[in-house]
Amino acid sequence: MQKHYDSLEKMHLKSPINDLIKSKINISQGKSQINFKNSPSMRSALDNIHNAYIFMGLEAAAFFAANSLIEDVLVSTKSFEIIFSKPTNSEELIAKGIFEEKSMGNYIISAELFDLNEKLIAKAKGVFRRSKNLLEDIKNYQ
């Protein structure tokens, strides 16, 4: 499984969005953690990180936690719900995703986003399903 985790990490690190957020990722069985920097271009008019990046961090952490469990195809997001706790302008953010359960072909994943002081910024729950996209056909997976 470690080869699968390493391939997923490589796929994320080589994705175009990572040129913007400069993230680091760690994937293990049913878990993922993404650390990323909050740059000035990511901030709202109130100088806090824009909600779009909060969503991106949470959804990516949940996505990779789900895909860590599936070795042949990419998962797709069926639904994703976020609860915002507080705004932040922390320089670095940490998104953690963890597998909760599998039900009727759905992978239920929870995710939380923290600042460097381990204060909760937002939490989420996502539902993911297997797609028809083979991992071996995904650019940068191999």
Question: How would you sum up this structure, described in words?
Answer:
The protein has three helices and six strands; from the N terminus they run H-H-E-E-H-E-E-E-E. With 142 residues, it is α+β, with helices and mostly antiparallel strands. The chain has a single domain (2-137), classed as Thiol Ester Dehydrase, Chain A (Roll). The model has no long low-confidence stretch (mean pLDDT 93).
Detail the topology: elements first, then pairings:
Layout: H1 2-13, H2 17-21, E1 24-28, E2 31-37, H3 51-67, E3 73-84, E4 92-103, E5 106-115, E6 120-134
Antiparallel strand pairs: 1-2, 2-4, 3-6, 4-5, 5-6
Write a compact overview of the structure shown.
This protein is α+β, with helices and mostly antiparallel strands and 142 residues long. It is built from three helices and six strands, in the order H-H-E-E-H-E-E-E-E.
Element order, helices and strands?
Answer: HHEEHEEEE
Q: Average pLDDT, to the nearest integer?
A: 93
Q: What distance lies between the first and last C-alpha atoms, to the nearest angstrom?
A: 14 Å
Which strands sit side by side, in order, in the main sheet?
1-2-4-5-6-3
The CATH C-level class name: Alpha Beta
- Work out the helix count: 3
User: How many structural domains does the protein architecture include?
Assistant: 1
Structural class: alpha+beta
Question: Runs with pLDDT <50, length 5+?
Answer: none
Beta fraction:
35-45%
- Helicity level, as a percent range? 10-25%
State the CATH superfamily name. Hotdog Thioesterase
Computed over alpha carbons, the radius of gyration is 15 Å
By oligomeric state, this entry counts as single chain
